[in-house]
Design brief:
- With 494 residues, this protein is α/β, with parallel strands linked by helices.
- The strands form four sheets. A six-stranded mixed beta sheet has the order 3-4-14-9-10-13, with helices on both faces. The chain has a five-stranded parallel beta sheet with strand order 8-5-6-7-15, with helices on both faces. The chain has a two-stranded antiparallel ribbon with strand order 1-2.
- Helix 7 links the parallel strand 5 and strand 6.
- Helix 3 crosses helix 4, helix 3 crosses helix 11 and helix 11 crosses helix 12.
């Protein structure tokens, strides 16, 4: 029996997983969600003996039911291979009483690799299954990490082009360098004079522009997305929460069935939503702790039941979380309305017209497993330094937001439940902020000197992704205003 996918904004006919992956966004502007969330078919004891690749198959086959075993295993093999610098793919490191789930061992040293290494293969397989003749154009907005991970995933993939928009002054030096040095005849990178929300809104507007879609179709192109709005991006993220729980069990850190907490630093809500889905599948998770930086729309939402984006946008040292519109939250909203598409649409309309919406008390009662906290810039830096001084373990700024929120939560509640912290980027990606947090004396060093120093004090090798960009030539120089994004796409595809 095929698991079908439904839009969050209408009761239109459900579609297969491969079609949902191809479309990215529903015609009504909604996001695709599975009609039901499947239960894990194996016990944790069984899963604990599996590799990451085998676990991925056991989880993903339940969601992507119209892919054959051969198709899915081929996608998984191509994705999780030697481009990861550790055999385990997603290792757990115990430090200062928590378990850090390192999601940054892929080609671009950020957690987005976990999903974006496989999405191109899922997408091209889906295109063949559905006899798509058009060239697929991946349109993506990035706050820093998605862009490079998607570019690396889709570079030179036959039958595709990828166009990435990023905020010109809103990403780290390393993040920008990784994108603008990207090779591949089918890759295009555009800096916009605006922030991530502007980039995301511009991309969404193009997806919803029927006229543009018809023009592109006439030229033999079809739009799809690599953002976390694509269900093909979300499903692979569920895997690492299943895998990390099974790993704790295998290493006798927890008993079978023992509940854990999960802490996720997030801006667009996708990464913690994957943990919520994992819990619904049967992973024994107690609290889902949602960690925000100074742009704390999600913290305020869980505190008050009001989502309000009408506020100052703050640039922080954790730029991948500098987001005021958490697109993936829509999937949770749909769930807590009792899968009421009309209600979800009403709330999303309110967000786009008034910049805010309020959920009902009944809906609020359905998010009790979520706990929210936020960390200021000062707390983030302090957390990096304290952890390093105490254990020698170095984390990046995004992970530090999560660790800071977790430490506060533990102090305030006395909750000693074993806890996984999603470590979403390598410290090498944000070397200046990380090294300055450890000691301000490093501030005089250049970006590349900082990287060398970080390697020295952490006792870890400089990742290949960093070594590569030291000498790589800049290949992408396009910059445009936010109102010129569509024009830029049309120019690229003419």
């Amino acid at each position: 029996m095929n698991l079908m996918y439904q839009s969050t904004r209408s009761n239109s006919e459900p579609i297969t997983a491969s079609k949902a992956i191809l479309k990215g966004l529903a015609d009504d502007g909604g996001l695709y969600v599975p009609v039901t969330i499947p239960k894990l078919g194996l016990s944790m004891k069984d899963i604990s003996s599996l590799t990451y690749q085998q676990t991925a198959y056991e989880v993903m086959k339940l969601f992507l039911t119209d892919f054959t075993e051969e198709e899915l295993k081929s996608c998984i093999e191509k994705a999780y291979d030697s481009k990861f610098d550790t055999e385990e793919i997603a290792p757990l490191v115990k430090a200062d009483g928590a378990y850090y789930l390192e999601l940054f061992h892929g080609a671009t040293i950020a957690f987005k690799d976990m999903a974006l290494s496989i999405l191109p293969h899922l997408l091209t397989t889906a295109a063949k299954k559905n006899q798509v003749q058009d060239k697929i154009v991946i349109l993506t907005a990035t706050s820093g990490d998605t862009g490079k991970a998607a570019l690396a995933g889709f570079a030179d993939v036959e039958g595709t082009k990828i166009i990435v928009f990023y905020p010109k002054d809103g990403v780290s030096v390393v993040q920008e360098k990784q994108m603008v040095t990207q090779k591949g005849d089918n890759t295009y990178v555009v800096g916009i004079r605006g922030n991530f929300d502007d980039a995301q809104s511009g991309v969404k507007a193009m997806f919803n522009n029927k006229e543009l879609a018809a023009d592109m179709k006439a030229k033999g192109y079809q739009f799809s997305s690599a953002n976390s709005i694509n269900i093909g991006r979300l499903v692979p993220q569920i895997v690492y929460y299943v895998y990390s729980y099974a790993n704790l069990y295998k290493n006798e850190e927890i008993a079978e069935g023992e509940k854990i907490n999960v802490v996720v630093p997030t801006g667009n809500f996708g990464n913690i939503l994957a943990a919520y889905y994992a819990k619904a599948m049967g992973v024994p998770i107690n609290k889902l702790i949602c960690a925000s930086n100074d742009n704390k729309v999600l913290f305020d939402f869980f505190q008050t039941g009001i989502y309000n984006k009408n506020r100052e946008f703050i640039l922080t040292s954790s730029p991948s979380m500098d987001i005021l519109i958490s697109s993936n939250l829509e999937r949770l909203i749909y769930q807590i309305t009792g899968k009421d598409a009309d209600k979800t649409l009403e709330l999303m309309k309110s967000l786009s017209t008034k910049g805010e919406y309020k959920i009902t008390e009944e809906m609020k009662s359905k998010v009790q497993e979520f706990v929210a906290g936020y960390a200021t810039e000062g707390e983030t830096a302090e957390t990096i330094k304290k952890l390093y001084d105490k254990t020698g373990y170095i984390i990046d700024t995004h992970t530090a937001v999560a660790a800071s929120v977790y430490n506060n939560y533990r102090t305030q509640t006395g909750d000693t439940t074993k806890t996984i912290i999603a470590s979403t980027a390598s410290p090498y990606k944000f070397a200046r902020s990380v090294m300055n947090a450890i000691d301000t004396k490093y501030n005089t060093l250049s970006e590349l000197e900082l990287v060398d120093e970080l390697s020295k004090i952490s006792g870890t090798d400089i990742p290949g992704a960093i070594e590569e960009i030291k000498t790589a030539p800049i290949l992408h120089t396009r910059v445009c205003d936010t109102d010129k994004m569509q024009e830029t796409v049309e120019e690229i595809l003419k």
